[in-house]
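Z., the sequence and structure:
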Amino acid sequence: MRRRYGYYWTKLIVLPLALLVGLAAFVWIGDSWWQAVHRRRAGRRVHADRVPRA
């Protein structure tokens, strides 16, 4: 089987870019209810009374 370099380069460029765009949106939104919506879309469900521990 041949290696699919285009596939790997696309993944290598698109995934970090998507992460940066998501983080920028999270910071740009600021402290609001929209941040909770954004967090839920990212798959992280954190309740206001339950702060995750490091």
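Helices lie at 5-29, 33-41. The CA atoms of residues 26 and 35 lie 6 Å apart.

Let me know what you think.
H.
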